[in-house]
Write a structure and sequence with these properties.
- This protein is of the alpha/beta class.
- It has a single domain, classed as UDP-N-acetylmuramoyl-L-alanine:D-glutamate ligase.
- Helix content is 38%, strand content 23%.
- The chain contains 13 helices and 13 strands.
- The strands form 2 sheets. The chain has a 9-stranded mixed β-sheet, with helices on both faces. Strands 3-2-6-7 form a 4-stranded mixed β-sheet.
- The longest helix is centred in the last third of the chain and has 18 residues.
- The chain is globular, with a radius of gyration of 19 Å.
- The model has no long low-confidence stretch (mean pLDDT 95).
- The protein binds adenosine monophosphate.
Length: 313
């Protein structure tokens, strides 16, 4: 099995200026795994309650997501998150977080899961992320995501966890908050001095950037005229990013740069509809088409220098 994710499998209640859902499949591991499944085999480590029904299970099954490391607690309730977005769709306002079955979760990985080549420590309590990280010592690449709540409430545990990861994938506000540094370039440098050798910063509608100690690479977001619900965009990005990497033999910087594009492509679909709805019925052709559009969008070598100069006058 090539790719493993630990994170929340949840029910979300979400309201945006364009509509609302009272109960839909959500959680970092759900968004991540469905997205990654377009590129590779993916296995989920998480816990759900008795409210996780056959209907939700089928969503994962349709995408060949391996659920054998998903723990089920029949008399418990699944993780629940309620959030709201205003017209600035880049900022999620958390109204309620109920850990429920995650409160006592102690991930125990199967032997197969322990042999995963790539691991994504999705957004969840950092002790749990560490619990998984410590069981996958042989993994070639371990990446981690987190959020403002964990940076605030469990900072020390999070700092301990990131010591052992290779790549961190967070948004710009989280990078500033974690580094306690308003300048993003300095924040990135500080985070990389604490463990990760690369940092991916997601910037919502402004795209994403990849930092390594020596290099910088930035891409725009795919230009969409209608954005409906950004919930899960970050995890869907991470799923495309890690899923693509898992499909590659060499995990060098060139592969990471292409993975950034696939991450953005997947996230751009995710925000077009509520929750996982759009990504669930995505086709390979749609993904490839948007990848090609990205290539067009960011290619400036095709424009002769002369014309470029005149165009700017
Ligand atoms: P994002 O990709 O950042 O939009 O993540 C959205 C998902 O994160 C939602 O589907 C929520 O269920 C999940 N989520 C929200 N808060 C937390 C939390 N504190 N820990 C784990 N997962 C969360």
């Amino acid at each position: 099995m090539s790719l493993l994710v630990v994170g929340s499998v949840a029910f979300d209640a979400v309201e945006t200026p364009f509509g609302k859902r009272e109960k839909m499949l959500g959680g970092s591991a759900s968004h991540f795994s469905i997205s990654a499944s377009f590129f590779t085999d993916v296995r989920v480590v998480a816990v759900v309650g008795g409210d996780f029904s056959r209907e939700e299970e089928q969503v994962f099954e349709r995408h060949n997501v391996n659920l054998s490391d998903l723990e089920r607690i029949a008399d418990g309730k699944s993780f629940f998150w309620r959030g709201r977005y205003d017209y600035d769709l880049n900022t999620a306002h958390t109204l309620d977080t109920q850990l429920n079955v995650f409160a006592d979760f102690q991930p125990k990985l199967s032997e197969e899961a322990k042999r995963s080549r790539l691991v994504f420590l999705g957004n969840i309590q950092p002790d749990l992320q560490r619990g998984v990280r410590d069981q996958v010592a042989g993994a070639e690449l371990i990446a981690l995501d987190t959020m403002n709540m964990w940076i605030e409430v469990t900072r020390d545990s999070l700092l301990e966890t990131i010591k052992g990861v290779h790549v961190m994938i967070i948004n710009d506000a989280e990078a500033r908050q974690l580094a306690d540094e308003p300048n993003l370039i300095r924040a990135a440098r500080k985070i990389m001095s604490q463990g990760p050798r690369a940092l991916v910063v997601k910037r919502g509608e402004y795209g994403a950037a990849l930092f390594t100690p020596e290099t910088y690479f930035a891409i725009p977001a795919y230009p969409l005229e209608s954005v409906f619900d950004p919930t899960g965009a970050g995890d869907t990005f991470a799923g495309g990013f890690m899923g693509y990497l898992a499909s590659q033999e060499k995990l060098d910087e060139a592969a990471m740069r292409r993975a950034m594009i696939f991450g953005s492509v997947m996230a751009s679909f995710n925000v077009e509809e509520f929750g996982t709805e759009r990504v669930q019925r995505l086709t390979y052709e749609e993904i490839n088409e948007r990848f090609r559009a990205f290539k067009q969008m960011t290619n400036f070598e095709a424009i002769p220098f002369e014309r470029a100069v005149r165009a700017t006058k």
